[in-house]
Amino acid sequence: MKAVALKRYLPSSDPESLLDVELPDPAPQGRDLLVRVHAISVNPADVKVRSPKDKTESSPRVLGWDASGVVEATGPDVKLFKRGDAVYYAGSILRPGCDSELHLVDERIVGPKPKSLDDAQAAALPLTALTAYEALFDRCAIDPGGRHSGRTLLVINGAGGVGSIAIQLARLAGLRVIATASRPESQQWCRDMGAHHVINHREDIPQQLKGVDIPEVDYVFNTVDTAGYWNTMCDVIKPFGRMVSIVETSQPLDLGRLMGKSVSFSWELMFTRSRFQTQDMEEQHRALKQVAEWLDAGRLRTTLTEKLSPINAANLRAAHAKVESGKMVGKLVLSGWR
Asked: What is the pLDDT of residues 202-229, one digit of tens each?
C-alpha cells in the first residue's frame, strides 16, 4: 500500500521529513477495522510527533490521526461495523497513523461517517470533535441537552480546529459563548461558528469581558497556552466554575488560586481512552455517532477550510508547515491518493 512516513525527525521544510513509501497491507485482528482511507486531516499532534529530535526509526513510521474512509475488512471480534461501511475516526497515538491507503483501527473509537458530508468534510472533524466533546460534556459536565442553557463559556483560541467545533457544541448545549481571536479573519470565523462575542486574546481579556457585560464566566476552555493564560483563567472564572485545557504546561501552575472559588480544573486528552484501553473506550464510538447525527440534522457544520490533493509527502509537508505557522483557521484536509 502507499503511505507517507518518516524515518528521521526533521523540520517540515526538509524534503526528508516526510517520505512517500510502499508498505505491506495490514491485516485486521480482534476488533480491528481495516479502512481504505479516502481523506486525512493534519493536527498539532502530527506536528508535535514529527518535530525535530535526535532519533531515527528502524522502519518507516506513519503518522496521522484524522481519517475518513470505507471499511475494507474486519477482525473476527468486530460487532459495530461491516465491510463497505463509511466511517470517520481519529485513531490511537500508540498505533501506526492513518497517512496510508489502508489503516487498522479499533472499532470502539470509530464512528459512522456523517451522510451529509463528503470524505474531506468528514476527515476534518474526528480528533477535534472528540476533544471538544469530552472537554465540554465530560470534563466540564455540561449537559448537551440544554440543562445548563444560559451559562457562559470562554474559548481561548476559538478559530483553531478544536475551538471551531467547541463553539458549535457549546451553542448546541445552549451556552453563551465568548471566543478569542486576534486577526480579522479569525474573529469572523468565530462569529461564523456561532460565538456570541469575540475578543482579542492579545489584549486584556478581563477588561474585554467587562466590556460585553460578562465579567466572569462559568467555564473556560483553553486550547492554546495553559501557563500563558493561567492567571487570566483564574481571574475570570466564577465560583464553583470549571476550567479545562488541552495544552501541556511549560511551567508549574498555581493550583492554590482555584481554592478560594472552589474551582475545578481538568486536562483533556482525546487519546487517553485508547492509550490505556479503558473499559469505556466505546464512548468515543458513541460520541462520533452523536456528532454525525447532529451534523446530518444541520445542528453542526464541518470546520474544513482548506483542501490539498493528492495525499502525498510533498502535500503533507506543506500541510505540516501550515499548521506550524499558528495561523490556521479551521482545518486542513488532504484527499485522494497520488
From this structure: 999 999 999 999 999 999 999 999 999 9
Give 85-120 pLDDT, tens digit per residue. Answer: 999 999 999 999 999 999 999 999 999 999 999 999
Q: And the C-alpha cell for 91?
A: 485513531
* Residues 6+ away with beta carbon under 8 Å from 11: 17, 52
Q: What is the pTM of this model?
A: 0.97
What CATH architecture applies to the domain 129-267? Answer: 3-Layer(aba) Sandwich (3.40)
- How far apart CA 20 and CA 225 sit, in angstroms, is 33
Residues 146/174, Cβ–Cβ less than 8 Å: yes
Query: Taking each helix axis from N to C terminus, what angle separates 283-296 and 126-133, rounded to the nearest 10 degrees?
Result: 110
Q: Does domain 2-125+280-335 have CATH number 3.90.180.10?
A: yes
Cβ atoms 273, 106 nearer than 8 A: no
As a whole number of angstroms, the distance between CA 313 and CA 179 comes to 34
Helix (H, G, I), strand (E, B) or coil at 314: helix
User: What is the dihedral sign for C-alpha 225, 158, 285, 36?
Assistant: negative
Are 151 and 157 in contact, with CB atoms under 8 Å apart? no
How far apart, in whole angstroms, are the C-alpha atoms of residue 242 and residue 240?
Answer: 7
